[in-house]
Amino acid sequence: MKEDSQTTPLQVHRHPMYWFDDGSVIVRAPSNQANSQDGDVLFKVHESLLRRHSTFIRQAVLEHGLGGSQNVPTLTIPRELGVQVKDFASLLEHLYHDTPLSPEAPFPHVAAILRVSSPDQLDLPSIHNLAQSYLVAMFPSGPSPFIHPSHLEEALCLALLYKITSIQKGLYYSLVTLTDFEPELGNSQSENPVPSNVLGNGGSSADLSTLHVLSPADIERCRNLMTGMVEHFTPILFTPPATPHMACTDVFADQWMALVIQSAIAGDGVYKPLETLEQIKQIDWGAKGLCPACVREKREEWTKEQEDVWEKMDGWLDLNTKE
């Protein structure tokens, strides 16, 4: 069947917010959504602001100048860079101080700016480093228990893509302890983390925010981490500890099942060693009959065990997370 030679003209429209009357350059951001009907978006902004921060913009102006036949020149962002329109808008929100990067900034805003400011996109080094610092602050690490926000899969993708090693181990731990990381039957996943300029149907870049699935390699890492933690921690959890004093050892023997094991089984604590050990430390063992010296000794041992688990995770993950 012969294809229709007529093509629908690409729609172009102005951004509703970032179109300044005194803007000195029109930036054309291509729609990178596969089969998108939205078309490209035009931003009329201040060229000096972009040039001051962006290595890409400076080089583009130096090497090629600015196109356009109007009084205001036009700079077209190459489609192959994979810059998302919404990411560029987030960057402008930061540059114009409408929604600057801050400790209170939501994850999608930080992630968008991290992508668009990266060396393989518009290359804004200082802003990229700032976004990275806020991402790191959002996802603390062990060996003490920590709490992570959502967006774990996308955060891991970004951490791997931009080699942010300090948060990778904690993200794998949260994926194992907080999510059902196993893929649903029938899902196909790529071998590598999804980069920000991954190509979708038709050759245009797909939206990373819709593609933050774990790669087979990361799923395997999660499996290995769970197996390693369970095999290591199970004998520790199910064995009442010994002490130098027989009376204190008897306290553990009598109460370990009720106070520790049953609680751990009910809360899936066998594969949450950091949290389970912290809960054990918080029990008022003195009130249960342990002498002060044994309470101090055992809490130090449980803290050391948290540190040991955290160190062993590098081997279970087969991942070098050292800075």
UniProtKB/TrEMBL annotation:
InterPro entries: SKP1/BTB/POZ_sf
Entry protein name: Unplaced genomic scaffold scaffold_48, whole genome shotgun sequence
Organism: Hydnomerulius pinastri MD-312
